[in-house]
Design goal:
single chain, eight-stranded mixed β-sheet, D-amino Acid Aminotransferase, Chain A, domain 1, globular, six-stranded antiparallel β-sheet, alpha+beta, Dna Ligase, domain 1
Length: 716
């Protein structure tokens, strides 16, 4: 069985075994193109690795926790991270490593190499997988190469690759990964060229950066860009970038290096070099008989062809739009730093200021015309901030994802989410809100008259001190009737606060967030995994991830303040337009009942539901299933919170809960974040959770394994 094939030994007969990238490089090398020396680790090695280690079954288990079509982006990423960690912690069997090592050492010895993906379906005219599988450059020594080969295999299961396969109808279970090991070329200039632009059929496009191509591929270095006429290469447009940095080789891997201001004076490529790259792309296109996207580099005055793939056809498939949005969530470290600065220094203060300014205008005091204008103004403000939230706040969550991958790559922990422990913030807006509720609950515990006034829903008898506390709370956090992010116009009254405060008071000593762990030793262990030269970057990434983790929850609270003021004006306008009606306020039902059909079988036997482990712990209690925001008013101490997803404006019931179960999943959704703050067992991503679990069911929540067991179903 052939495990290793040098480029010279690759033919049409083993095309599938070496994948699209490996076969194309072999063909180009035979035709005299200046392709660096390389070999291919065939897909058979990948299959053997899965079979001999048992990873095939373990990957299948992770993929089948939930129907992929029902997964949100957080769940897809969690699944990919767990699978990546399986590769980290599953050594290459010695017998298999012994078959690979001699061939690698014979060709490369101690020379640095690039390790690249080459899946059979990759780089075809129908599916390019461009940028979805990992590559590693400047890797030296056989042990390090073998370790990177495993990570290239793992990237077959990355979140972006899984989404791409799902959208293009490819079965992940049948996917195979070959690997190209290629001599590493230290380029002075690098880039890509489309022999036919995806955006304009009559043009070719060249992008070039100083240094290595990783600066362009990872979005760290802005490229110079040339648009050329395909017929003769005549320039149509040129855009020069700021050349203030480049990616260069480090002791291992690569590093970002600052460039002097003088580097900005000239284009990355001279006119003859632009023509040489263009002619290279046309020659590759002629050989492969299709427009191509090539990656190239210039070293010591020579132009090298690093890889080539067909330019895939553009479609109007809605899946493409969804996938492009998803891929836009993957941000570089530098981009995330810029996002953080704008979020913390510009957008959050501006959101607070606009919410405060709106709060100073009482909609009830406005004339009808002025109120209509105010509703329109607040609607525009709300729309603006919702757009900023989706375009910038959501992508900032990638700071946690980026840190998690770096942490796991460096330390290879058994628990793929061990890194979360280092991110727990000292304070969050949602826990600050809960502390204010608990302080009001303690006022109720000390004052029976206040308790009775709240039970009677009589605001005239609550007293000055409690009213001041209530006003401070409402001004900062609203009245708890509003779900966040445009899920409906709110009712606006204080009954929800009264009910929750009464329940917190009745619970005795309300739960507080767990004291932050002393993570100094863990943090030092993380930093020690890096060389002295890389340690500052590792520390900066940790600091960024902590901000990303905190803001993943806080940003919704800030957005909620904007929305509440908009809803207040809308409600006043609706009140004036509505006909007179009975103003008697009804109390939400204290229990929810499911139809016998939807509950069939659950009363007869226990049932296990599988989701994503998101908060370590094991807890049991009666379920409280939340189907609408008002249901939260009936939440009782010791119940298990079951819902579609914990909206940030639902977390006020968490001090009463004993565990959390959500239909939506992911380690970065709000329910998981707040559960870890309070040390609660949490399982997310449970399909049909709110249909299969009814209020009153006795359930056991295993946050270690991601399993929810219905041990006793309530009767309808």
């Amino acid at each position: 069985m052939t495990f290793i094939l040098p480029l010279a030994d690759i033919s049409d007969q083993n095309r599938h075994a070496v994948g699209g990238k490996g076969y194309a490089l072999a063909l180009l090398k035979r035709q005299g193109f200046n392709v660096p020396e390389a070999l291919c680790i065939t897909g058979r090695v990948y299959r053997k690795y899965l079979e001999q280690t048992g990873l095939k079954a373990r990957i299948a288990f992770e993929l089948n926790r939930k129907d992929f079509a029902q997964m949100r982006w957080e769940e897809i990423w969690d699944t990919a991270l767990r699978i990546r960690n399986l590769f980290h912690n599953t050594p290459l069997p010695e017998a298999l490593a012994a078959k690979l090592a001699p061939g690698i050492e014979k060709i490369f010895g101690n020379r640095p190499v690039a390790v690249r993906s080459s899946a059979p379906e990759e780089d075809s005219a129908a599916a390019s997988f461009a940028g979805l599988h990992e590559s590693f450059v400047n890797v030296t020594g056989t042990p390090a190469i073998l370790e990177r080969i495993k990570l290239v295999w793992a990237s077959l299961w990355s979140d972006a690759a899984l989404l791409y396969r799902h959208d293009t109808g490819l079965d992940p279970a049948k996917s195979v990964m070959a690997v190209v090991v290629q001599a590493f070329i230290t380029g002075r200039q690098s880039g890509v060229c489309f022999s036919r632009s995806p955006a304009a059929a009559g043009e070719a496009v060249i992008e070039a950066v100083p240094g290595l191509n990783q600066g362009l591929v990872d979005g760290i270095v802005e490229p110079d860009r040339w648009h050329l006429r395909r017929t003769d290469g005549a320039p149509r447009a040129y855009r020069q970038a700021q050349h203030d940095r480049q990616i260069s080789p480090a002791a291992t891997g690569v590093q970002t290096v600052s460039l002097p201001a003088t580097e900005n004076a000239a284009p990355v490529l001279s006119a003859p070099q632009v023509d040489a790259v263009f002619q290279l792309a046309l020659s590759v296109e002629a050989l492969l008989a299709t427009p191509v996207d090539i990656e190239w580099t210039v070293a010591d005055g020579r132009l090298y062809l690093l890889q080539a793939r067909p330019v895939t056809a553009q479609t109007d498939d809605p899946a493409d739009t969804k996938r492009k949005w998803y891929l836009s969530l993957h941000r570089s470290f530098d981009n995330l730093k810029q996002l953080r600065h704008r979020i913390e220094s510009e957008w959050l203060p501006a959101m607070d200021a606009e919410a405060e300014a709106m709060a100073r205008i009482d909609p009830t005091a406005l004339s009808d015309d002025a109120l209509a204008a105010e509703v329109a103004r607040r609607s525009a403000i709300n729309t603006k901030w919702v757009g900023i939230y989706w375009d910038h706040f959501i992508p900032f969550a990638h700071g946690v994802r980026l840190f998690g991958q770096v942490y796991n790559d460096a330390l290879k922990p058994e628990d793929p989410f061990e890194f979360i422990t280092l991110l727990a913030p000292e304070k969050m807006e949602s826990t600050a809100r809960n502390r204010m509720l608990i302080r009001m609950a303690k006022m109720v515990q000390a004052n029976p008259r206040l308790r009775q006034a709240l039970q009677d829903d009589d605001e005239d008898r609550i007293g000055k001190e409690f009213k001041q506390a209530l006003n401070r709370f409402s001004r900062r956090f609203g009245d708890l009737t509003c779900p966040v992010s445009g899920q409906g116009i709110c009712r606006f009254d204080n009954r929800m606060i009264f009910n929750i405060v009464l329940e917190l008071a009745a619970a005795g000593e309300p739960a507080l967030p767990d004291e932050p762990m002393d993570t100094a030793g863990m943090e030092q262990h993380y930093l020690n995994a890096f060389s002295t030269s890389d340690r500052d970057h590792a520390a900066a990434l940790l600091d960024l991830a902590r901000a990303s983790y905190r803001l993943r929850d806080d940003d919704n609270i800030y957005l909620g303040r904007i929305e509440r003021q908009y809803f207040a004006a809308v409600q006043e306008q609706e009140r004036r337009l509505a006909p007179p009606q009975d103003k008697t306020r009804s109390t939400p039902a204290s229990n929810q009942k499911d139809s016998p059909k939807s509950r069939a079988g659950l009363m007869m036997q226990a049932r296990q539901l599988v989701g994503q482990p998101a908060g370590p712990g094991l807890a049991s209690g009666r379920a409280r299933t939340i189907r609408k925001h008002e249901d939260l008013a009936q939440f009782k101490a010791g119940e298990v919170l079951v819902c579609d997803a914990v909206d940030p404006n639902m977390t006020f019931v968490v001090p009463l809960a004993t565990a959390i179960v959500e239909r939506r999943g992911g380690m970065l959704i709000h329910g998981a974040i707040i559960a870890r703050e309070y040390g609660l067992a949490c399982v997310t991503g449970v399909p049909n959770a709110t249909n299969l679990i009814a209020t009153g069911d006795l359930v056991t929540v295993d946050g270690y394994l991601g399993v929810v067991t219905i041990t006793h179903a309530s009767r309808t």
